[in-house]
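Working notes for the structural subgroup meeting. M.R. asked for a predicted model of this chain before we commit to crystallization trials. I am recording the input and output together here so anyone reviewing the notebook later can reproduce the run.

Input as submitted:
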Amino acid sequence: MVQLHPGAPFDISPWFDGFLSDPTRALPSLSLRPQPQFSPTGARFTAVVSLVFALCLESHVLAHEDLLARILSLTAQISTNQSNTEAILQRADLYRLHRNFQEAKADYTTAERSGPRSASLFLGQAQLQVDLGEDRAARLLFDQALKLSPTNKTVLLGRGRALARLGESKAAIADYTGSIASPVGVQAEEFLERASLQAAEFGPDEAIRGLDEGLVRLGWVVTLQQAALDYEMKRQKPEQALARLETILTRTNRKETWLVRKGEILLVAGKPSEARETLTFTLQTIEALPPRSRNSPWMMRLRAQVEVLIAGIDVINPVARK
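Returned structure, recorded in token form:
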């Protein structure tokens, strides 16, 4: 999942994920939705977005050209040996990645008929069903793959995600945990996705334990620490949230957004004087930025947010102003 800057003037994140997977399908559906309190930033923003799109499109085209070349190579191999199940299965996977689902399904069926049913075959068929939006069918195929390869990380993660979409949270958590137990290839997003399920099923304490496991396993990762911070606030532990936030502040060059978050947490913690001090320092930090950054729409919005927070503190607690 692509996450753009939370202060971006347009919300294009949902579209952007589709663009990265298939820009030729996503381009016609693009619509820029201005965020509240923002106006379009004009030529500069358009130029940046255009550049990103161009780079992604070029990468996408090259990737698809590579897929087609590999499909052609495998087709040549299969033409000389129609019983080459491995080549047929590889081509099925490539067709699926190329989003040619009809050809992928045909090759999976051929592979199923011409050779023994393997974990790789069931995995490919399951992933095809996921691509088609058929999670219940995918789940059954993942089950078959796991009977043959019980600790297969890719299968466990795939089934966990399908189970999560089907609303079977406890079973999904178990599969995520199995995937995370793999000695290699574990990603932060697995801990984040599991934490979301853990929070919904068992509460924020369990989610935080899972995220801390990720921080031990992967080392310090900002997205894991940020998620843990948010769960600390959900369980009304502002002091623990502040401790986590300090680890972020010490590691980031651009601190403005995090300083505002710190001020907000200090307010929740019942420390208006410290909150005001932090927010005042945030304004000073913003003013020290180069004009181009300081006067950007996002930074102007952030500054306005800080000024509103300070004004609110002064009204509610005049002593904090001194």
